[in-house]
Design goal:
Organism: Alicyclobacillus vulcanalis
Pfam family, one: SBP_bac_1
Distance between the termini: 37 Å
Keywords: Signal, Sugar transport, Transport
Number of domains: 2
Number of helices: 18
Protein name: Multiple sugar transport system substrate-binding protein
CATH architecture of the largest domain: 3-Layer(aba) Sandwich
Length: about 475
């Protein structure tokens, strides 16, 4: 996978920049487009088959700028240009995650320097859709909807309008050290109650280690836990939203983690910190809650004792036995900007690099071997031979096939991100930190987040119900 950013408390400058864009951009940004998208849906473009994909005929010439942090992204450009020699793509690494978003918000506000295609994560899509920064590309890509895992298309759509092409996803699973489980005769938990029981038992058997860790600096990861539990914190579109952050289920989720942290069975720690890196390498955690890309982005870079620890992947524990609902942590999109002079060409590029078989073969290949290291949103990627191979980082378990290909369609399709993710993450991290430090209850912490988010959203001009 790509290098992920931890959703630490964002700087005031970034939140301010996004707020300025939201209030100042309206429904357009940057240069005016010379190819405005028709308001009609699929069928507005004449299609041809390109590497198995039905894509628009495009005979003109275009030069696009693409902001992305995908490993080995130039290879994606090279493949695309073989099929579309009339469309040239200039790749720019504007930084990953927050670094890129700050630059993107700045150029949108400035009205110049806006890329044609920009890589965004699912959780910030509503923010940029609300600002009018992104182009509706449905006239050119609606026919591709069924080629993607259904919930991912929901993340890039508002009604019939489509604002980007899903690239990759992060269905959540349980990673565990089979060496420790064998040593202490532990069972891989299938429910969260079992997870808690195993955690307490493990800590009694070996007080020097933790059963797992809680990423206290990653609001996106925390929301992945809520997603998997069936929570629906946000519902709506446009200016009308319902906010339900402090639901009983959300209280239940964080209360479980609070109890395990208080008992010493789980460590609350900033993921990515030097201490955390040291602990991963030392095998201090018997388990970890991670995405399909966890092995390539966390274990391979930070655990240099994989042969000893023998990590494997399992299905995420269930809150209710038999309810196989999952959530997502991470995942990204290639979105076309409203400022692009060539939105049709940009839409073709975004679709091709994320769904064409020639691209998918590259995308799912390990980054260390020159590939993208992605868990693809396009379901055809599941059929690529390299996707199905045993994973040496997971004791040669073919985890993509055994676990994550099955978890992917279980991701709750009703979950939505709000237009205020950056603000929400900051508030959640702060308040949950207070609760875990014993300064307030979990219920009070979530109520505080609820109140703060509702007030913030209303201050930004949104109609909010609770």
């Amino acid at each position: 996978m790509k290098v992920r950013r931890n959703k630490t408390v964002l700087t005031g400058s970034l939140l301010g920049a996004m707020a300025i864009v939201a209030t100042g951009c309206g429904t357009s940004s940057g240069n005016s487009s010379s190819q405005s998208a028709p308001s009609t849906g699929a069928g507005a473009a004449s299609l041809k088959t390109v590497d198995g994909l039905p894509l628009p005929q495009y005979t003109g010439k275009a030069t696009l700028t693409w902001w992305a942090w995908v490993p080995n992204a130039q290879k994606e450009v090279d493949i695309f240009e073989k099929y579309y020699p009339n469309i040239k793509v200039h790749l720019v690494d504007a930084g990953a995650g927050t670094t890129e978003y700050q630059k993107f918000s700045t150029v949108i506000q400035a009205g110049s320097g806006v890329p044609d295609v920009v890589m965004l994560e699912f959780d910030v899509m509503p923010e940029y859709i609300a600002t009018g920064a992104l182009q509706d590309i449905s006239p050119w890509v609606s026919q591709l909807k069924n080629r993607f895992t259904p919930w991912t298309w929901n993340q890039v759509s508002v009604g019939s309008r489509v604002y980007g092409i899903p690239e990759d996803t992060g269905p959540i699973g349980l990673f565990y050290q089979s060496s420790l489980f064998n040593k202490y005769h532990l069972k891989v938990p299938t429910t969260w109650n079992q997870f808690a029981q195993e955690a307490l038992e493990f800590h009694k058997l070996d007080p020097s280690q933790y059963f797992s860790y809680f990423s206290n600096n990653d609001g996106q990861w925390m929301f992945g836990l809520l997603w998997q539990a069936g929570c629906i914190p946000f519902q709506g579109s446009g200016n009308n939203w319902k906010v339900d952050i402090d639901s009983p289920k959300a209280v239940q989720v964080f209360s479980l983690w609070q109890k395990l942290i208080k008992e010493g069975a789980v460590q609350s720690i900033a993921a990515g910190s030097p201490e955390w890196q040291k602990n991963i390498n030392a095998g201090l955690y018997a388990t970890a809650i991670g995405s399909a890309w966890y092995d390539s982005e966390i274990l391979v870079p930070y655990d240099h004792n994989l042969a000893t620890h023998k990590w494997r992947a399992a299905f995420i524990p269930e809150w209710t036995p038999g309810d196989t609902m999952d959530g997502d942590w991470g995942g990204s999109v290639q979105a076309v900007t409203k400022a692009s002079k060539y939105p049709e060409a940009a839409a073709i590029f975004a679709a091709f690099v994320n769904a064409a078989p020639a691209e998918l073969a590259h995308d799912v290949a390990p980054a260390k071997d020159g590939g993208g290291g992605l868990f693809p949103a396009a379901t055809a990627g599941f059929d690529i031979p390299s996707f199905k191979q045993p994973n040496p980082a997971l004791d040669n378990q073919p985890a993509n096939v055994d676990i994550f290909e099955k978890e992917s369609p279980r991701v709750n399709t009703k979950f939505q991100w709000s237009p205020w993710s950056s603000y929400v993450f900051n508030e959640l991290q702060t308040e949950i930190g207070k609760a875990f430090a014993g300064k307030e209850t979990v219920q009070q912490a979530l109520a505080n987040v609820q109140q703060a988010v509702v007030s913030y959203a209303r201050s930004q001009g949104y109609n909010v119900t609770t």
